[in-house]
Model the fold of this input.
Amino acid sequence: MDDPNESNSQQQPPQQPPALANFDATTRNVDDWAEQVRSDIGNQQQEQATGTNAFDWARNIQQQLSAQGQQIRQQAQQLAQHHEVIQRFQQLLEENTQLKEENAMLRKKLDALQNDMNQPKTTCNTEMVVDDEDDSQDAIGKACDKVAAAMATIAQEGSSTKDSIHAHASPLKKVSYASIAKKSSTRSQRRKQRLDNPTEGMIAWATRNFTNTNTEDMDDTHEPVRPRARYDIVYLTSPQRTSHGEARRALAIFNIPQARIIDVHFPIRGIIGLLIHADFKTELLDLLKQAKVNPVDFNPTAPATIINPEYADYTGEQRADKAKELYSNRMLRACARMPKAYLGASILRHFVSLAEDDPHHLDKVVEKQFEIMRPRPTRRERTPLAIPSIEEARRLLSSESNAGMDTNE
Done:
């Protein structure tokens, strides 16, 4: 049997307006009740419409504010651009004013130059101008004074046609033999001062010219023979691409004398090679250690140095041959472009003399190619041992002049 409460809850009508809820079944004025119901329903619809209109109004206000903000930003950008244009225009006005002033000045100089060119030119005074204390100088000194005075006058005449400032005649500057000799003596004094106070590098260079510190260069009689120059290559790492000039400037910052660095080359990416004399290696390593730069061990003829994709299909032996070829060509080019050919020949001679298992060994053919590229200069003819005396030379000249006169007759 069904529950009466459940049936009543299921049959309960939906919620009605207040007028319907207060409806009195006993009320007979149905028209008044209907009018009240219609009024309540209209009020509810008006409230709903009012809420919807307020939401739309707020959304419209937000959109308008966003559009106005974007417009303000655009106007600010345009204002900044206009400000830059105004500044540039002011600069152009200032430059224009400056150019006008320079143009007026140049026109004045041009007019003065034209007036100077229209005037008759004065002759060059080549008379000797000497000091009173130099009256006793020899003929050579007088000739020097005369030439110097003439050159000074010519220089003065030439300068007057270049600039109107120098167009007016100025007193001739006295140039004497004593002043020229004084300049020469000043140079000799500076040279002598350098020799009197030599630096450590100068002393080391002079010592190397007369000292053989290599005990290996001895013959069977324990007498020193001419030492053969030895060279070495120190390798450094470089994480970035570096040029020759940048590498040398960086080494100069470490107080490394650039005259001792014979050549700088780049065998592969990330490695820099410094070709130096073997005697300088210890000093170079000390300077690099002070700069906190550590040298690395590098084999220029190793197969691992061939990283070009062009040789990707090469075997290990082919890569080793290619590395040897590239190393030989690199050393040959470096030595061939040296201004002093004997230095390049000495370097190649050293690396050719190394053992064949040494990674820096060069074949004999490289030295032959260098001789073809930089042939040795031919020797000049020696001076004859028999030099005629002054009397003999005079007799020869007189005999030649007499022979010429006989021919004319």
Remarks:
- Residues 299-376 form one domain.
- Residues 143 and 307 are 71 Å apart (CA to CA).
- The first helix runs from residue 4 to 10.
